[in-house]
Amino acid sequence: MAPFTVLHVCMGNICRSPMAERLLARAVRDRAGDEAGEELVRSLSAGTGGWHEGEEMNPPAARQVRSRRGVPDGFLARKLRGDFIDEADLILTATADQFDYVVALRPDAADHTFVLGEFGRLLGAVDAAALPPAAPKQDAVHARGAAIVEAVAALRGSDAPLAADDLDDPWGRGDQTFQRVGDEIEDTTVPFAALLLP
Question: What domains lie within the chain, and their CATH numbers?
């Protein structure tokens, strides 16, 4: 069995989605330990555009990741492809526009694709007692992760995401904006990791 795979999507894949990728990985490591984390959850990212393909994370984004005990090293931006979507168990987009882009590429991914803020907002209403038992094993994490995604999709129903669910694009803006975006990312990634690996 493969690790539970989360794909983060933004526009250029140098600010928001790499921050989300590395901050979720750190939140999982905090719960499972350094070695086990990567075997249990694979956190990846891509951008809807390929302008920055092969580039490192934007420096202020990397600073935010580092300041939150994440690891920005070794990151290279990449353009979203259909096979990335196919491999993902959960897709978190920075904005509703990017949600639409993912679903236009792969309509069958709609039930496990969410705007990041929307997923975080609905996550708190998931009944943890109704989820499969938690254990630091690949199959247990996969089953629990799939059940969380299903529960959040049921809570969403046919409702559209709220405007407030979108993450601002911090590119070209100051450290204060990056810090706020980092906080908003962690408002989703930390509770998700805690529910996945209590």
Answer: 4-196 (3.40.50.2300)
